[in-house]
Amino acid sequence: MSLKIATWNINSVRLRLPLVERFLIDQAPDVLCLQEIKCREAEFPYSAFKKLGYGHVQINGQKGYHGVAIISRHPLDDVDRKEFCGNSDARFIGANVSGHDIRLHNFYVPAGGDIPDPDLNVKFAHKLAFLEEMKDWANVISAQYPRSVLVGDLNVAPLETDVWNHKALLKIVSHTLGEVERLIAVQNAGQWFDAGRFGTPLEEKIFTWWSYRSPNWEASDRGRRLDHVWTTPSLKPKVKSCQVFKDIRNWERPSDHVPVLVHLAD
Questions:
Q1: How far is CA 85 from the centre of its chain?
Q2: The domain containing residue 76 runs over which residues?
Q3: How far apart, in Å, are the Cα atoms of 11 and each of 78, 109, 179, 247, 259?
Q4: Of 60, 68, 158, 237, most Cβ neighbours within 10 A?
């Protein structure tokens, strides 16, 4: 078995379709999971992906906001578009990758706004509730699908070396103690392995997102690791490499996130 799985918050798939096409041509993943596609199913550019050999696409879409998609060279089945927190926002899609005995779970966790106080900020309260519900889900799903890969923009940088400055970001949404504790609880609930850090020592910084607000993003390198790839314990020995494509942040009209690509092989 060999399977290359990529995840990327694309921040509008139609706007950045040329970037996605270039990435698929350059890196040829078997599966690409996108977040924040910002379109409905009928508006998705299926034909562009089919021309590149990705004829299997499953989407949980929404007009102008959110939305997730799984784009694959291999058939996808047993598709799940679960809602979290009783909210119809399109933030999750799951599917089996046919012929590989792999279950994919693609998430776009709420960003949470700017104020890290659930009493003052309903968006932050929603994010915390989403992570709590994710924990309950993870506990069940890892047993139901023991060969699972969870990917997506989880909008939390859990480790001190997942942010450019730990102390400076302790009160900034995405690295607050409440968010970090909840994300780690999700990870522990399913005994998920953090494949996104495979090959990178814990003391070494690694980022997947840099703010649009920073005109000199590369020089200042004030990034965060918000995009993750986790596997269930049975797949941990199959993880052979992980790449973060920082250079794509310099492409024309880029997303503020870059792709992460994990290679699973026997």
A1: 19
A2: 2-265
A3: 26, 14, 22, 17, 12
A4: 68
> How many residues appear in the chain?
266
Which neighbouring-strand residues pair with 56?
72
Whose structure tokens read 């508006």? Answer: 43
Residue 161 CA, chain-centre distance (Å), reads 18
Phi/psi of residue 194, nearest 5 degrees:
-80, 85
Q: Are 72 and 53 in contact (CB under 8 A)?
A: no
**Using an 8 Å Cβ cutoff, are 69 and 58 in contact?**
yes
* pLDDT tens-place values along the chain, 266 residues long: 799 999 999 999 999 999 999 999 999 999 999 999 999 999 999 999 999 999 999 999 999 999 999 999 999 999 999 999 999 999 999 999 998 999 999 999 999 999 999 999 999 999 999 999 999 999 899 899 999 999 999 999 999 999 999 999 999 999 999 999 999 999 999 999 999 999 999 999 999 999 998 878 999 999 999 999 999 999 999 999 999 999 999 999 999 999 999 999 97
Please answer whether residues 32 and 6 qualify as being in contact, where contact means their C-beta atoms are separated by less than 8 angstroms: yes
For the four alpha carbons of 107, 8, 61 and 63, in that order, the dihedral sign comes to positive
5 contacts 264 by C-beta, under 8 angstroms: yes
Tokens of 71: 């784009």
CATH number at residue 93: 3.60.10.10
Q: CA 218, 127, 120: angle at the middle one, nearest 5?
A: 100
Q: How many domains does the chain have?
A: 1
Asked whether 250 and 215 are in contact (CB, 8 A), the reply is no
As a whole number of Å, the CA-based R_g of the chain is 17
